[in-house]
Specification:
29% of the residues lie in helices and 25% in strands. It is an alpha/beta fold. The protein has two domains: 219 residues, Rossmann fold, CATH 3.40.50; 126 residues, no CATH class. α6 packs across α7. The longest helix has 16 residues.
Length: 365
C-alpha cells in the first residue's frame, strides 16, 4: 500500500506532501489539481523503462504532453520531484530535470531500477476507470489479454461486459463485499444485487459472439414472479451502463489492489451515489487501496454513514479537499486533509466544500 505521496513542481502541485490511506477521496471545485494528483500515480504505473530511469509523460493511462505541460508554471527549481512511501519502506525521492520539449522525464538522482521494481511489484494489481467511460453500445469489445490474462476492465470500462462473460459465473466476491440479497456469492449474482440498489430489479446478461470477437450486453428487470423482455443498453438509460464498470471494479477489489476511479457518480441518482460510497468503504476495508476523484457529497456521505455503521474503520478513510492559493506572484494547489470520526462527523468543513445546498436555499428564502 502507498502510505505517503510527495509532489513538487508538477502542474499546479507546487509542494504537496500527504499521507494516504486505504480509502482516499479527492474533492474540490473544478481545476483545483485533483486530476493532476491522480496523474502522478498513473505516470509511474505506465512507465516501464526501468533501465533508463524514464517516466513516460504519454502512455496508455495518461497523456500529459511535453515537459512544458508538466512543470509548475512558477517553479523556482527546474526539477519535477516525486516521492513515495510504500508499505512503510524508506521514502523514495525521484528528481527529474525539466526539459520543455521532451515527452519523457529522465531522472537525475535517486531513481533506481531497484526502487522502480519495488514500486511496480507493489502496484501491479491495479485498476483505473477514467471519467470518460464507454456508454450504451450494440456490441462491446473483447480481449483475452486484457481480461482473461490481466483481469482489466479497460480505462473506459470497455471490457466490463467481456469480464462478466468470462468470470461472472466462475469468480466469487470477498465475504466483506457480499450483498445479503444476492442469489449466491458468484460475481454475476453479487453484481446484480448491488446494481439493483442503483436501478431496482435490473438483471445483467452477456453473450459472446465469437465470429466478431464482441460481446452483447442487455438488461432485464424483475417482475413479481417473472422477468421483462431483454432491453438493449441504448433503451435503458445512460446511467446503468456508465456505472457498471465502477461497481464491477469495486466488487473485484482484493487486498493489495490499487483502484483509481474518476467521477464514479456520473449519471447516477443521489441514492445510487450514496450506495457507491458504501461499496467503496467495504472494498477498502478488505485491504484494497482506493483513490476516488469525485464531486459528489452523496458519495462522501455514504462513506460517512459506512464509518458510523462500522463498515470501515475511521483510520482507513482519508478525505482530501483541493483548493488553490493565489497571491501576487503565483497560484498553486492547497490540500486540506479531513478526518472522519466514529460518528461520521468531519474534522473540518472548508469553504465551498459542502455548503452549496445552503447557499442556494438562502436565495430561495
Amino acid at each position: 500500500m502507498i502510505n505517503q505521496i510527495k509532489i513538487e513542481n508538477f502542474k499546479s502541485l507546487k509542494n504537496v506532501d500527504v499521507n494516504v490511506r486505504h480509502l482516499n477521496l479527492l474533492m474540490g471545485l473544478n481545476g483545483m489539481g485533483k486530476s493532476s494528483f491522480m496523474q502522478v500515480l498513473l505516470l509511474l504505473m505506465q512507465s516501464d523503462k526501468l533501465e533508463d530511469n524514464v517516466v513516460d509523460l504519454n502512455g496508455t493511462l495518461v497523456q500529459i504532453g511535453q515537459g512544458k505541460d508538466a512543470l509548475y508554471q512558477f517553479a523556482e527549481s527546474k526539477n519535477i520531484n516525486l516521492g513515495l512511501d510504500i508499505n512503510g519502506q524508506q521514502l523514495f525521492l525521484w528528481k527529474f530535470p525539466y526539459r520543455s520539449d521532451k515527452e519523457k522525464l529522465t531522472a537525475k538522482t535517486g531513481y533506481t531500477k531497484k526502487q522502480m521494481t519495488f514500486f511496480r511489484n507493489n502496484t501491479k494489481h491495479f485498476q483505473y476507470i477514467s471519467a470518460e467511460r464507454t456508454g450504451p453500445r450494440d456490441f462491446y469489445d473483447a480481449s483475452n489479454v486484457m481480461v482473461a490474462d490481466m483481469k482489466q476492465l479497460g480505462l473506459l470500462g470497455e471490457y466490463a461486459a467481456y469480464y462478466i462473460e468470462i468470470f461472472g459465473l466462475d469468480d466469487g466476491v470477498s465475504e466483506k463485499l457480499r450483498h445479503a440479497n444476492a442469489a449466491s456469492n458468484k460475481l454475476i449474482h453479487q453484481l446484480n444485487a448491488w446494481m439493483q440498489e442503483i436501478s431496482p430489479g435490473v438483471l445483467i446478461n452477456t453473450k459472446y459472439v465469437p465470429v466478431a470477437n464482441k460481446v452483447i450486453l442487455d438488461y432485464q428487470f424483475e417482475l413479481t414472479k417473472e422477468k421483462t423482455n431483454s432491453f438493449r443498453p441504448k433503451n435503458t438509460g445512460f446511467g446503468i451502463t456508465y456505472v457498471l464498470p465502477v461497481v464491477l471494479a469495486l466488487l473485484t477489489a482484493e487486498e493489495g489492489k490499487i483502484i483509481l476511479i474518476e467521477n464514479p457518480e456520473s449519471h447516477i441518482h443521489p441514492k445510487g451515489q450514496a450506495i457507491l460510497g458504501k461499496l467503496m468503504a467495504l472494498a477498502s476495508n478488505i485491504g484494497a487501496q482506493l483513490f476516488i476523484e469525485t464531486h459528489s457529497d452523496h458519495i462522501l456521505n455514504g462513506i460517512r454513514v459506512a464509518v458510523k455503521e462500522n463498515c470501515i474503520d475511521t483510520s482507513k478513510v482519508n478525505v482530501m479537499y483541493f483548493d488553490k492559493i493565489t497571491n501576487d506572484t503565483e497560484q498553486f494547489t492547497n490540500i486540506t486533509q479531513i478526518e472522519i470520526d466514529r460518528r461520521g462527523e468531519m474534522s473540518e468543513y472548508p469553504k465551498d466544500f459542502l455548503d452549496e445546498w445552503s447557499n442556494q436555499l438562502l436565495k430561495l428564502v
